[in-house]
Write a structure and sequence with these properties.
This protein has one domain (about 1-199): Rossmann fold, CATH 3.40.50. It contains seven helices and twelve strands. The protein has helices at about 15-30, 85-90, 90-100, 110-120, 135-140, 165-175, 180-190; strands at about 1-5, 35-40, 45, 55, 60, 65-70, 105-110, 125, 145, 150, 155-160, 195-199. Strands 5-2-1-6-7-11-10-12 form an eight-stranded mixed beta sheet, sandwiched between helices. A two-stranded antiparallel ribbon has the order 3-4.
């Protein structure tokens, strides 16, 4: 499984790096997956919401992922960088919609779910986002479910920040089995929160 996590200026660090670590540990535990951090535009450095600067692995357009993970960050403050700015710019929602139409499974972490909503992929489907953006999600055609993780098959969403870890563990268990997920939980000393709503 080819997993791509899209990053952009203002993304929340844990939204992206938490799932990245889970998926990398899953690969070390035997899961057939590769994970990379990808951008829409060709850039050398991306600065996250708390100042972390990363060098992405390349452009999303250079690969065809099986799973596209979209982190949030900066939605509620409506800043010049972050999920809100990316929603207004439109490039990420356009790419998300196109990827979903092409059969890619889409996962939104925190207010990354709002980028999925802006792309239209949560229309008429169960979804969740950060608690501070639930009213914005309710203003879309999504069916808001208050859970840490909502799994609707080819569209998954997670609530605020740390729930991205729950999302990643859920995906690992769903795609690679309970044994791999248990190995990674043990390695990371992470307790299962168990709040997954499956559509």
């Amino acid at each position: 499984m080819e997993i791509a996590i899209v990053v952009y200026d203002g993304f929340d660090e844990l939204d992206a790096i938490g799932p990245y670590e889970v998926f990398q540990n899953a690969a070390q535990a035997g899961a057939d997956c590769t994970t990379s951090l990808r951008t829409i535009d060709a850039v050398e450095v991306v600065e996250a919401s708390h100042g972390l600067r990363i060098e992405p692995d390349g452009r999303l357009a250079d690969i065809r992922p099986d799973l596209l993970v979209v982190p949030g960050g900066g939605w509620n403050d409506r800043g010049a960088a972050g999920a809100w700015a990316e929603a207004e710019r439109g490039a990420i929602p356009e790419v998300v919609a196109g990827a979903h139409d092409a059969g890619v499974t889409i996962a939104g972490v925190c207010t990354g779910g709002m980028l999925l909503a802006r792309a239209g992929v949560t229309d008429g489907r169960p979804a969740v986002t950060h608690g501070g953006a639930l009213d914005d999600l309710r203003a879309t055609p999504a069916e808001v479910i208050e859970a840490r993780v909502v799994d609707d098959g080819d569209v998954l969403t997670a609530g605020g920040v740390t729930s991205g870890l729950d999302l990643a563990f859920h995906i690992v268990e769903r795609e690679f089995g309970d044994d791999v997920a248990k190995q990674v939980r043990t390695e990371m000393e992470y307790e299962d929160h168990g709040s997954v709503s499956e559509g």
